[in-house]
Amino acid sequence: MTAEPNWETGEGLLGMDDPAEWDAAFERGERHLGTAVIGLAFNCSLQEASPRIIRAMQLPEAAQRGFAYTAAGTAARLHGDLTPELYAALRAAGPDRRSIAGNAVRDTMTFVPFRRLPPWLKGWKVASTVLDKLEAWRLQASYAVIDARETLPRRRPRR
């Protein structure tokens, strides 16, 4: 890293490139470990970052856990793949949209080629694509009804 990270404020942690420094901070119970693990995802190999991302997914603070899932999505974007352990962690958190892992799962489905996805995620990708298409058709139909109501002349009530 070029600048000294500030564990108290989180400043400089997105530049984290030393897994050993992250491990030492984890052992000390430092704040902003989720932020720092995003830095590892940006600056280290997938094999170096993966175990730390998984550890950060277990942090007690919800926001920092969320950043760990962001790091998993970032790793998928940068490397076009994830480790089996990261796939398992995403599956355990749940792939649906209300899950803390939802964005990471969507990033993974977007940036990892279909042939590399594990079977459960291939199934989820197919199902979510179908559900998204059905929702798009439903919205188009409802907009068409609204447009038709606005276009048709209004009938006046009889007296």
Write up this protein.
By secondary structure, the protein is mainly alpha-helical. Helix content is 65%, strand content 0%. It contains 7 helices and no strands. The protein has helices spanning 19-28, 33-43, 46-56, 62-79, 84-93, 102-111, 119-151. α3 (46-56) runs antiparallel to α4. It starts with 18 loop residues before the first helix and ends in an 8-residue tail after the last helix.
The main pleated sheet reads as: none
Pairing-aware structural class of the strands and helices? mainly alpha
How many runs of DSSP E, i.e. beta strands?
0
Taken as a percent bin, the fraction of beta residues is under 5%
Question: Mean pLDDT, rounded to whole units?
Answer: 91
Order of helices and strands: HHHHHHH
Radius of gyration: 22 Å
Distance between the termini: 81 Å
Gross geometry: elongated
State the helix count.
7
Low-confidence stretches: none
